[in-house]
Design goal:
CATH superfamily of the largest domain: NAD(P)-binding Rossmann-like Domain
Structural class: alpha/beta
Strand content: 5-15%
Number of helices: 12
Shape: elongated
Largest sheet: 8 strands, mixed
């Protein structure tokens, strides 16, 4: 029998996962979602045929997997509301909220509750994201498998050995799409300054980014080797890369990842108990 999955929160990431699950053959009758905003709730019911409601506890009461897709600021209140409905049932909890730690879930839901903390990213909306995940001690093989099944429509699932590394996951993949968008934005602006029409510059940059990403993901060679292969001595690529290196490009990237990681820790501390 297919597991029953309840989504607490019906925003973009929840919508992406629900759509992916149904596209992979999950029955709409096995999926439910709670969402306080009428427009979001009605869209989920209309587009996917799932059961929806405004009450969190009612949606989670008979679920085998409960996906917490609410803002970190309200997570404590949501968990305390759900705790009685989850106590002793053996259901698995998957959180996709940034910054909320496993220890906090343990205090709000009880130490026996299986919890998997996940950090997906926005390309999940296209099914080409990635999720870094970590589980608490109460989450056995079944809970981990259930989490993977829910997250798989968003892209690959990577298990992180220590929760302390989740802030680095957030800095690299959670925030990472914005870094590539910034590079694309800068490349397009530079192309336009060279005289290329905006539409042409945009097409060149976007398709080049897509092609480079596919080469890195679908081939066996490392990014370093791919870079070397397209860099002819004395050529245009080498000239551009030398300008990047002269501007301390690698140092800037390292500083950006470090700052994002630190900020992730700071935000986690702000959530409190």
């Amino acid at each position: 029998m297919a597991p029953k999955i309840a989504f607490i929160g019906g925003g973009n990431m929840a919508r992406c996962l629900i759509g992916g699950l149904i596209a992979r053959g999950a029955a709409p009758a096995a999926i439910a979602a709670s969402e306080p905003q009428d427009a979001l709730r009605e869209a989920l019911a209309r587009d996917f045929g799932i059961r929806t409601a405004t009450g969190n506890a009612a949606i989670a009461a008979d679920a085998d997997v409960v996906v917490l897709a609410v803002k970190p600021q309200v997570m404590r209140a949501v968990c305390l509301e759900l705790a009685p409905a989850l106590a002793g049932r053996g259901a698995s909890v998957v959180s996709i909220a940034a910054g909320v730690r496993l220890a906090q879930f343990g205090r709000w839901l009880g130490p026996a509750q299986a919890v998997v903390r996940a950090m997906p990213n926005t390309p999940a909306l296209l099914g080409c994201g990635i999720s870094g995940v970590v589980a608490n001690a109460a989450a056995g093989a079944a809970a981990r498998a259930a989490a993977e099944a829910v997250l798989a429509p968003a892209g690959p699932v990577v298990w992180i050995p220590d929760e302390s590394l989740m802030d680095a996951v957030t800095a690299v993949s959670g925030s990472g799409p914005a870094y590539f968008f910034l590079l694309m934005e800068a490349m397009q602006a530079a192309a336009e300054r060279q005289g290329l029409p905006r539409e042409v510059a945009a097409a060149l940059v976007r398709q080049t980014a897509l092609g480079a990403a596919r080469m890195a993901c679908e081939g066996a060679e490392t990014p370093s080797r791919l870079r070397e292969r397209v860099t002819s001595p004395g050529g245009t690529t080498q000239a551009a890369l030398e300008a990047f290196e002269a501007g301390a490009f690698r140092g800037l990237v390292d500083a950006a990842i470090d700052r994002a990681t630190t900020r992730g820790r700071e935000l986690s501390d702000l959530i409190g108990d």
